[in-house]
Design goal:
Layout lengths: L8 E4 L2 E4 L3 E6 L4 E7 L3 H19 L3 H17 L1 H11 L4 H22 L5 E3 L10 E9 L2 E5 L7 H12 L3 E5 L6 H12 L7 E3 L4 H10 L3 E7 L2 H11 L3 E5 L4 E5 L5 H13 L9 E7 H16 L19 H16 L3 E4 L3 E2 L2 E2 L2 E4 L6 H4 L6 E7 L2 H8 L4 E2 L1 E5 L3 H10 L4 E4 L15 E2 L2 E2 L4 H7 L1 E9 L2
Parallel strand pairs: 7-8, 7-10, 8-9, 10-11, 12-13, 12-20, 13-18, 17-18, 20-21
Antiparallel strand pairs: 1-2, 3-4, 5-6, 6-24, 11-23, 14-17, 15-16, 19-22
Family: Belongs to the aldehyde dehydrogenase family.
Keywords: Oxidoreductase
Protein name: Aldehyde dehydrogenase family protein
Amino acid sequence: MMLTEKRKKMFLGGRWVEKDEVIHVYDPQDNAIITTVPKASEADILAAIEAAEEGVKIAGNMPVHERISIINKAADYVEEHRAIFAETIAREGSKTITEARGEVVRCINTLRLSAEEARRIIGETISFDQMPGHENRVGYYYRFPIGIIAAITPFNDPLNLVAHKVGPAIASGNAIIVKPASLTPLSGLLLAEAFEAAGLPEKVLSVVTGSGREIGDILVTHPSIRMVSFTGGMETGEKIAKKAGLKKLSMELGSNSPAIVLQDANIDDAVSSCVAGAFGAVGQNCIGVQRIFIETSQFNEFVRKFVKETKKYKTGNKKDETTDMGPLISKREAIRVEEWVNEALEENAILLTGGKRDDAFYTPTVLMNVAADARIATEEIFGPVVLLFEVENLTEAIEKANQVNYGLQAGIFTKDINLAFQAIQQLEVGGIMVNDSSDYRIDSMPFGGVKGSGLGREGVIYTIQEMTEPKVVHFNLG
């Protein structure tokens, strides 16, 4: 079984490195120790950067057809070993085995997309003769790799979010150093195995395991790092932005996603979509539904049906094929969610269902009558909790949806195209899903937000744009 030999090693500059000091990786379901991974030191990060300084030259000189071949072979490897990848995701994280299998499929797709887009990194001719006196000048621009990329990834999609950074980086001829979440490092190490098996040259990729507090600053501030790609919380993102210096930043920093249900919406479709969007992946999802605004005429029926569907959700063993929802990533996180819910209840919120914690498990929870300034209404809960609000019309719904300092994605349910376009124009978000919840994404679309939700866009082709720069070439023909 993969990872047996390398379970105590990290992938540093293309070589598997073991350390005496380790980090324990736990299964959040029962807190059992799965394995250990090295606890990287400052010297290890500097070694990874030194390797990447050579790796970026190797990657930049790699012909496009080789990049395509390597990425596709890595995708083949993941596909061939998909059961082990899914088991690893499910064991080290919060996802059920069914959700984990879905993430493996997405990872394969992300890699295939990266291989395809490698052949489409193109430039354009420039009409220099548009200016009088420049008639004898011609030229064009092309895109070149930015250099060494530092990628910091979260625990909630431990495989596909690594693929979203590594695939485009290799496709565009860069070297990349990945620092996966300490809670879920195994999936990223498995992806390193896939690229090693695919024949990726040494020094192009590192997957370094360790504490962000101890190695993060070096990784984001080092002058050789030309771009930091970070997915995580807004507070950490702000700290990185202040420390990083003059380098490119791409950040996806979470959200507090709204869904709007208008009076003409198909209630059953809206309920089904929003329940799945709120409680999938235990609500530990940056585009998960957190606030739902329902027009008055539909409110009571929507609430009744939503609570009924929520109560059907089965919480339990992640490995059980019939389980809908497993534990949060840790008992600590479950306690935090519990505290936020209790705060809202103390401020006169109404608990419609859920609100119970058992170790790291927290039941799917629905609240009503939550104060607009409650922490659970203004911050990202990142747990299985959804808030229901009654509104008079779309204008009120949009106004309330925009009140938070997040803007990643939103959903609206309506049959009226004019109202849909009003929401499209006025909601302060990076993506609008019409007749779907906010929790909809394919890996080829531009993905990102506004306000506190981040900078730049992910999605393979858009990540490649972020990871390359245009270079202008001009000829004076005399």
